[in-house]
Specification:
One of its GO terms (molecular function) is zinc ion binding. It is built from 28 helices and 34 strands. By secondary structure, it is an alpha+beta fold. It is elongated and about 160 Å long. The N terminus and C terminus are likely disordered.
């Protein structure tokens, strides 16, 4: 809970003009530096008010949107502007002014004093009501619309509640609204409702229906009503807030259901909230759905048992149905608070503005809601710079006293003081924006504290760019201490930010001391690339075997520069190099590559192999050379190459394969050259693989080969078993069985014979099945053809005779006619057909017969 602090003064001390009021924590057990932000800010109303209160004392005050009206104990009324300057002064009485009332327009004022004087007049015309009563008048209230002629009404309160109305004769008519319950101490008029408080309680009167609505009794009758007066405040046209002693009630005026009226008023009051407070209430004011409450505080002294007057408190509370929640609480050190009673304090507020005036006899304090500038002030005071910066950015249109960039600079300074250089540098991006001067100042500051590395990654490098010297200074700093960081900056920064030649020279100087440093070499290559000296960059990349060499070649079309570096590229990464060379054959010819790789046959083989895979016909002139390369470096792919190549010299290939004793390749070449017997012989004799021999014989499908195979295998039982298992579908097994010598032991003979029988049965079944399918299909097709030929044929006037080419139907359908329609759909007049042929009674279509389709070939005779 915050406090407004001021040193206590003796009554004889002179006032000083203190416009600002400081805060501190009130409770002794709480931390001195509260982390809870206050809700209100305070300042003393000074200027003319200071002079007035030096010689007089405030007794009451009324607040209007445009001005203030202050009444004093010496019977004077001052009109003040909102800064406290006196604009008008009225000498009303020689004793205390009890109440000042203004209408909503601020054009009329009502004043009452302790000597019974009541004056109601216009501020711009003194015509009005002036009356002296024989008893003190405590309160006066004008109709809110008093300026309008229909509402020239006001009420006064002393021992009675009197209503004054001006009639059509311009005379004032007086009515007694209430009496007999003691002195009336407070009146509040809102719209058609008048609320007043006397010794018994609070009443509400409806001026439109001339009915008293309710009576809200006061709770603590032991308190003197003159010492602890009632506080009344209208929140809106139907909500009245009542504070008396330590009790607060929120009352709502509601319309009564017509069916329940009978003799009751048309309105009634419902108490929505009622609760007790810790201290005595001196004033109330609404703040949205909360309450601003001025408390008079009495506390017990630690040294004495008696009570003493403490500083008044201004609290913001959240009303609940039966209790309240404290939102904030400020103790105010107003002047001479030690001498004041509960009745000496008042709380007034401006409608539509969050301004609250705390009035005491010798001091007037203005409380106002803290705005965004105040919120930022508090955050900066608490060193919550990040939150302050965020708040300023969000509300930059509304703040008046602060500048977003200045707050940001304060935040950066704070981070630097803390030693959090990285965060400070990161904030520079956001705070400094496009202000080049600020950027350069910050860079030099970071240089002074030896933290250039921290700010390097956040320097502007887009539309806004600093002087090249700034970037070069940072690069030189990294080059001295951090090669990796230097390389990172070179990769990330565009080359036009700095003088490229100067940095190249600096790197070269460092390489003289450390010529094998790969980081510096790579960075130098990148710098050469920025400078478009690609040949030098390429040399370094190749020397380092750097992965970016291929990207560099492609990006900058450096193929002419690598014609003499093909071996280096292949040594670095054969796959990538070959793919690049093959993808760019138009830039580096195959002949050139073969020439460069002539002394490195293993690399030449990789290149020619991939070339052959892409296109069997490209590089055909190198197929003869490839035979030896495959034989030397890649035998598994030799046979596929021999199979796929149509440009390979078979004699040369056969010679190489025979020299190296490549049996499979030799067998293939012999078979391709037509020497199948020799090939089969090699399979049988050198490979001794009956399955391959059988497979080879099947591929060639030559009876003589089968005979040679049987002859070679007849004295080799394992071969006979293999033949018995596989020969059945190509050669009659009986031929093999008859040639087996009696008494020869053949492994798995029984299984082989069973398999032969099974294969034979399977063949029989397949033939029978095929025969059944063939017969069924033939019958089905015959039936289909028969149905088709038996269908009728449409003949109309569009058809013509294929012989005379006249219309097939006569123009006169009544005459007899004869038409012959064949199954081939050719039509003739009967008389146009030649006589029957060799077969009596059978006619053929001349057209189809001429085409040699044969008699009856798709012919159907049809007469009409």
């Amino acid at each position: 809970m915050a406090e407004v602090e001021e040193e206590g003064r003796k009554p004889s001390e002179e006032f000083t003009d203190e416009s600002e009021i400081a805060f501190e924590d009130r409770a002794p057990l709480e931390e001195e530096d509260s982390e809870e932000e206050p809700k209100l800010k305070y300042e003393r109303l000074s200027n003319g008010v200071t002079e007035i209160l030096q010689n007089d004392a405030a007794s009451c005050m009324t607040v209007h949107d445009k001005f203030l009206a202050l009444g004093t104990h010496f019977g004077k009324v001052f009109l003040l502007d909102i800064q406290g300057n006196v604009t008008q002064k009225f000498e009303i009485s020689s004793v205390k002014i009890n109440q000042i009332s203004l209408d909503e327009s601020g054009e009329h004022v009502g004043i009452c004093s302790e000597d019974g004087k009541v004056q109601v007049f216009g501020l711009y015309t003194r015509e009005g009501f002036h009356e002296n009563f024989d008893c003190p008048v405590k309160v006066v209230a004008l109709h809110p619309q008093f300026t309008r002629s229909n509402y020239k009404q006001f009420v006064t309160g002393g021992n009675k509640l009197l209503l004054y109305e001006r009639n059509w004769l311009n005379r004032w008519k007086t009515s007694v609204l209430h009496e007999g319950e003691g002195t009336i101490t407070n009146i509040q008029w809102r719209a058609n409702l008048i609320a007043w408080a006397n010794n018994v309680g609070v009443k509400i009167y409806d001026i439109s229906t001339k009915q008293r609505i309710t009576n809200v009794l006061r709770d603590n009758v032991s308190l003197r009503p003159d010492m602890y007066p009632c506080s009344l405040c209208w929140k809106d046209n139907t909500t009245l807030i009542v504070g008396w002693g330590t009790s607060i009630k929120i009352c709502v005026v509601k319309e009564r259901n017509p069916t329940e009226m009978r003799d009751l008023p048309s309105r009634y009051v419902e108490i929505m909230s009622a609760f007790e407070t810790e201290f005595f209430i001196s004033g109330l004011a609404p703040l949205a759905d909360q309450l601003v409450t001025l408390f008079f505080v009495k506390e017990n002294s630690d040294q004495m048992d008696e009570e003493f007057r403490a500083r008044p408190r201004l609290d913001i509370i959240q009303p609940l149905p039966e209790s309240c929640e404290e939102i904030s609480s400020d103790a105010l050190t107003v002047r001479y608070f030690q001498d004041n009673e509960c009745r000496d304090y008042r709380l007034e507020h401006a409608e539509g503005e969050s301004l609250f005036y705390i009035i005491s006899p010798k001091d007037i304090v203005v409380a106002k809601e803290r705005d965004q500038d105040d919120h930022i002030d508090w955050l900066l005071e608490k060193k919550k710079y990040e939150e302050a910066l965020m708040a300023a950015e969000i509300s930059f249109k509304n703040i008046k006293r602060h500048d977003v960039q200045k707050i940001g600079m304060a935040y950066i300074n704070h981070l630097v003081e803390k030693g959090d250089y990285d965060s400070a540098a990161r904030k520079c991006q956001k705070v400094l924006g496009k202000n080049m001067e600020l950027w350069e100042n910050e860079v030099y500051r970071f240089k002074t504290i030896g933290q250039l590395k921290a700010i390097s990654q956040y320097l502007p490098r887009g539309d806004l760019r600093l002087r090249p010297a700034i970037y070069e200074m940072i690069l030189h700093e990294f080059l001295k201490t951090d090669y990796e960081g230097f390389a990172t900056l070179i990769r990330e920064w565009p080359g036009e930010l700095y003088n490229n030649m100067a940095i190249v020279q600096a790197v070269t100087d460092h390489l003289k001391r450390d010529p094998t440093n790969s980081t510096l070499l790579t960075t130098l290559a990148e710098l050469y690339t920025y400078d478009q000296r690609y040949d030098r960059a390429l040399e370094i990349y190749l020397r380092l075997r750097h992965k970016d060499v291929y990207q560099l070649i492609h990006k900058h079309n450096l193929f002419s520069s690598i014609e003499d570096k093909i071996v280096l590229l292949m040594d670095f990464d054969k796959e990538k190099a070959v793919d690049m060379l093959l993808d760019n054959e138009d830039k580096i010819s195959t002949d050139r590559v073969v020439e460069e790789l002539a002394d490195r046959p293993e690399l030449l083989h990789v290149y020619l192999h991939k070339l052959f895979k892409r296109d069997h016909h490209k590089g055909q002139k190198y197929h003869e050379r490839q035979i030896g390369l495959y034989a030397e470096y890649d035998r598994p792919n030799l046979l596929p190459f021999l199979r796929d190549s149509t440009h390979c010299p078979l004699e040369k290939a056969l010679e190489i394969c025979q020299q190296r004793n490549f049996v499979e390749e030799t067998v293939f070449l012999l078979s391709r050259m037509g020497n199948c017997r020799r090939a089969l012989q090699m399979i049988m004799e050198e490979l001794e693989d009956v399955d391959k021999a059988i497979e080879f014989a099947k591929e060639q499908d030559d009876a003589e080969l089968w005979e040679d195979l049987i002859s070679y295998s007849i004295d080799k039982p394992p071969f006979i078993t293999g033949l018995l298992n596989n020969i059945g579908t190509h050669v009659d097994p009986i031929l093999l069985i008859h040639r087996i010598k009696e008494g020869m032991e053949i492994p798995n003979l029984r299984d082989s014979l069973v398999k032969i029988l099974q294969d034979y049965n399977l063949q029989i079944l397949l033939r029978e099945g095929c025969k059944k399918i063939l017969v069924a299909d033939s019958l089905s097709l015959l039936q289909k053809m028969h149905r088709t030929q038996m269908r009728g044929v449409r003949v109309d006037e569009e058809n013509i005779c294929e012989s005379c080419h006249a219309t097939i139907l006569p123009s006169d359908m009544a005459k007899p006619f004869s038409v012959v329609v064949f199954h081939c759909r050719h039509m003739f007049h009967k008389e146009c057909l030649p006589s029957s042929g060799t077969i009596p009674g059978v006619q053929f279509c001349n057209i189809c017969s001429a085409k040699r389709r044969g008699p009856g070939s798709g012919i159907l005779e049809m007469k009409k």
